[in-house]
Amino acid sequence: MQRLNAEPTFVDGMTAGLGGPRTSSLLNRLDAMISWDELAKPLEGLYRNGEQGGRRPWPVVTMLKCLLLAKWFGLSDPQLEETLQDRLSFRRFVGLSLQDATPDETTFVRFRGRLREAGVIDTLFESALAHLDREGLVLKTGTLVDATILEAPRGRKRDDGQSTRDPEASFTKKHGKAYHGYKAHIATDRCGLITGCVFDTAKVHDSKHFEELTAKERSGGAVYADSAYHSRALREPLHRRGVLTGIIVKRVRGQRSLPAVQKRMNRCLASIRAVVEHPFAWIKNMGHRRVRYRGLERNRVDFVLMAVAYNFKRSLSLAER
To answer: What are the boundaries of each domain within the chain?
Structure first.
């Protein structure tokens, strides 16, 4: 059985108007826009086989709010714990009265572990996207594809000769520079909402997950991507489905330069596909230029949570249009 948060007291009522007005306004809008019970429904079984005895687990909605709060404000687990103890607007958002205890950083780690072990992180992403779709915020035609490298520590050699490097991360080169870590592949609609994401090691080429990310685009639609996806093998399946291929063309071997008309077309396509870079910019501005954990699956769960948080934050702007 999950724990119940205390009912608001007189003191909670007296402090309801306190806190930063901009933060409170943002959190109130997010709280009103997101259907939390619907988002938590696929996760109801997380505690079904939980530990016997001990403290009751926190409600799934409370934990989801905590994890997304951390993503919206670029907080680590220790920072999230401390901020929940310190900021009234954060406590109100997650449903904690002034009398309630505060989840600690270990609780956040364990909850993410439950999401990972239950294999429900993709279900959470799809549930959040379906909610935005019902709100009419997801565009039905037009898919933009891109990928970015998220670096991991390269480690060091221990006294026994073994390395502390993450064994599941890998090396790759980009523009002549070596990177070590993972690669996030995403698809967005024309407004920048993330409609699909795949997390893999850095050595996997950008084009590896192209077909998976563009599979939902139907006849009459269009796919936009940069020159890393320029190949006949990727274009022809789209042509057969009647999908416009807005992929930037690059020079082939032996070609000194592109024709002027192709250069103009590339500039036009670049202005359209630039929208797909906005999610990556936001994610990295929130402190996720590097991965935070060891192992592919742990980092994948973390990235998908970032994608869910980004989509909800982005949807506030789209709803005002």
So the answer is: 10-118, 140-293
Mapped onto helix, strand or coil, the DSSP state of residue 245 is strand
CA angle 75, 81, 86 (to 5 degrees): 95
Task: Give pLDDT tens digits for 135-145.
Answer: 999 998 999 99
Q: How far is the C-alpha of 37 from the C-alpha of 145, rounded, in Å?
A: 31
Helix (H, G, I), strand (E, B) or coil at 32: helix
β-pairing, 143-151 vs 177-188, is: antiparallel
Contact, 27 vs 84, CB < 8 A?
Answer: no
> 140 is written with which tokens?
């039905």
pLDDT at 54: 56
CA distance 45 to 101: 24
DSSP classification of residue 249: P
* Residue of 121, 248, 249, 277 lying closest to 186 (CA atoms): 277
C-alpha 53/C-alpha 40 separation (Å) is 24
Pairwise CA distance, residues 108 & 96, whole Å: 16
Type of residue at 162: Q
| Helix residue spans in the chain (DSSP H) | 10-14, 21-33, 36-40, 60-72, 77-86, 88-94, 105-118, 121-134, 210-214, 232-240, 260-273, 277-285, 296-319
Does position 257 have pLDDT exceeding 70, yes or no? yes
**Tens digits of residue pLDDT in 103-128:** 999 999 999 999 999 999 999 999 99
CA–CA gap between residue 26 and residue 22 (Å, rounded): 6
140-293 CATH:
3.30.420
Q: Are the C-beta atoms of 239 and 245 separated by less than 8 Å?
A: yes
Quick one: which of 104, 107, 88 has its CA closest to 96? Answer: 88
Q: Please state, as a whole number, how many other Cβ atoms lie within 10 Å of the Cβ of residue 2.
A: 16
8 Å CB contact between 42 and 124 = yes
Alpha-carbon distance of 188 to 143, in angstroms, equals 6
Phi, psi for residue 194 in degrees, rounded to 5: -75, 120
Beta pairing class for 244-247 and 194-201: unpaired
